Amino acid sequence: MDCGIFTSKTVLLFLSLVFWVAGAALAYVGAYVIKSYDNFDSFIQDKYTLVPAAIIIGVSVVMFIFGLVGCCATLRESKVGLSFFFLIIMGIFAAEVAALVFTFIYKGKINADLELSMNDVFMKYDGQNAETRAVDYLQTRLQCCGVMNYTSWSNTTWFSSNNNTVPASCCKNSTQCTGRLDQPDQLNTQGCEVKLDRLLQGVLGYAMLVILGFAIIKFFGMLSVCVITCKTGSRRSGYQPLYA
Predict the structure, then answer these.
(1) Is the pTM of this model over 0.70?
(2) Cα–Cα distance between 46 and 34 in angstroms, integer?
(3) What digits encode the pLDDT tens for the residues 5-61?
(4) Which residue, 106, 158, 179, 206, has most beta carbons within 10 Å?
(5) Helical ranges in the chain per DSSP H
């Protein structure tokens, strides 16, 4: 068998086999991004930041379906099948590039909107409402206190109406903590904005690396389809087994 044909077939078969693995990985990444944002949705105003995750999950479903198509088309050297597979790969490649661009765009917008939305949520803290649960979850999960730092609570209505104390979720140890600002050793003094921004940036950075890796695989897959199509077009038609 021609070395170019053998190599291209091997690449396409490998690509077909990893379609299922890639689909599962992309579905996990998309779900992880959505879950991470869902945990802190009270602090994020721009819901379009979930667009990359939605694209990733959509791509993963398509990859599961068309993995078998690519395998059969490659083994049989079907020109129609390979052309269809090429369109599939190109479509997924375009979707992954779009997801990469969206991720890059919204990665830079997170920090700009975060402080304003967080200040608004913290100001609505009253110990009982939905904003209270969101803030307590955030401060407990990230071990932080206040927007910029623990003294940010002094600008809230909760602080002035509760004997100048911060919520218990700011405390390192709630059983011994009074919540007073003059006892910072009992509090998580770091602000939540920086920690939340770092968390979300990390999630999107992780998603970008995964998307980029699979986009590169799709690029080489398209090249392989072109090689097989050109080679088979220049010789007599017929079935060519993989290890002829």
Answers:
(1) no
(2) 13
(3) 677 677 777 777 777 777 777 788 888 777 777 766 666 655 556 777 777 788 788
(4) 179
(5) 3-39, 51-76, 79-123, 130-142, 157-161, 192-233
